What we know:
Layout: E1 16-20, H1 26-34, E2 38-43, H2 46-56, E3 68-73, E4 86-92, H3 101-111, E5 112-123, H4 125-134, H5 137-140, H6 151-160, E6 163-171, H7 175-184, H8 193-208, H9 211-224, E7 227-234
Parallel strand pairs: 1-2, 1-4, 2-3, 4-5
Antiparallel strand pairs: 5-7, 6-7
Helix pairs in contact: 4-7, 7-8
Amino acid sequence: MQTVDFKHFPLDSGDLVLDLGCGEGRHVISAYVAADVHSVGVDLSLDDLKTTREKFSDFAEPECDHKSFGLSSANALELPFADNTFDKVICSEVLEHIPDYAGALREIQRVLRPGGLFCASVPRRWPEKICWALSDEYYQVPGGHLRIFRSDELRGEIEQLGFSHYYRHWAHALHAPFWWLQCLFWKNRDSNWLVAQYHRLLVWDLMENPALTRILEKCMNPIVGKSVVMYFRKEAAA
């Protein structure tokens, strides 16, 4: 399930791309597949990194100078990279989990080269508020969501670090009702029939990618998209 749209976040041959908080690898692998780039995923969870490595084995290509793949376990507040290292940075559905998210943004600003692109996505405010209202456990689980962002305020904080915002869209409208159902039936969500049927729908949609649901979700995203996705360029003077 890809949140970043590479049409608005173009990858150039030879780019060094960082996926900060890569989880199980959806964007760090997608970037590697989409272009001849050096794709690096960073996450605190060793288990997630192992899963990413296993998934990547299906996409690995012969080693060459203009394309590579790497993973590292690191803290978002102390990235093990020099200043101005990366051409592109992705941080998707991560900032809501980090107590000092402003510190993570400063690290992103530090490791991204001037003129480089940064994509940040977080849960959209009103669908997320419904989740919080339906279930305390949804956000109180270890590693859960710590805050609900106002996207305009987050955009302003990022711009204050020397970034210029150039595009925004919403994503995953079909997933918002699924999370509402999970929150509504949280205590028995793993066995609930309605949750299971909606999950089957999402898996079918992901695997088959039918035109009907793609068009439906595209129309629904501005209204009920679960994630807000923002794109920035680091100014040369930052």
